[in-house]
Amino acid sequence: MESSDPTSLSTSHSPSFIVLLICWLALVLLSVATVTLGDSGSSHLLAGGILLVALAKAWIIIDGFMELRRTRGFWRPLLLAWPLVMAAVIGFGLLSRT
Questions:
Q1: What are the C-alpha distances in Å from 69 to residues 3, 12, 79?
Q2: CA atoms of 88 and 46, how far apart (whole Å)
Q3: Distances (CA, A) of 6 to 3, 9, 20, 55, 68
Q4: Which DSSP string do the residues of 5-53 spell out, in sequence order?
Q5: In which band, very low, low, confident or very high, does the pLDDT at 1 lie, cut at 50, 70 and 90?
Q6: Measured torsion, CA atoms of residues 57, 62, 67, 68, in degrees rounded to the nearest 10
Q7: How many CB atoms lie within 10 A of CB 64?
Q8: Which of 96, 91, 93 is nearest to 45 (CA)?
Q9: Which of 97, 94, 98 is nearest to 49 (CA)?
């Protein structure tokens, strides 16, 4: 018999510990990559690399932690589109400054 306690851990709807650990490790590594790229200098190529790393982090958060990779409907595309729009606006702003 399943517990009706909302604080109990249920394995039927929650991601496995291994999946969350892999997501967390990927986010840590991507954060280190962001800092490394930021400390490497200042160029449009490095800024583009930082934006790509930020997009990868957003994808991991949306699909991994928020568990939207198997959902239907508009939430996943909407949440994945937002970082793309932000990266495009920032990238356009950086390119227009030259």
A1: 27, 16, 11
A2: 15
A3: 8, 8, 20, 33, 20
A4: -TTS--TTTSPPHHHHHHHHHHHHHHHHHHHHHHHT---HHHHHHHHHH
A5: very low
A6: -140
A7: 18
A8: 91
A9: 94
For helices 44-60 and 75-96, angle between their N-to-C axes, nearest 10 degrees:
170
- Looking up tokens 């999946």, which residue turns up? 19
Q: Find the mean pLDDT for residues 64-86.
A: 91
User: How many whole angstroms separate alpha carbon 69 and alpha carbon 47?
Assistant: 28
d(CA 61, CA 31): 13
Q: What is the pLDDT of residues 46-59, one digit of tens each?
A: 999 999 999 999 99
For tokens 């997009």, the residue is 55
Nearest to 49 by CA among 91, 96, 2: 91
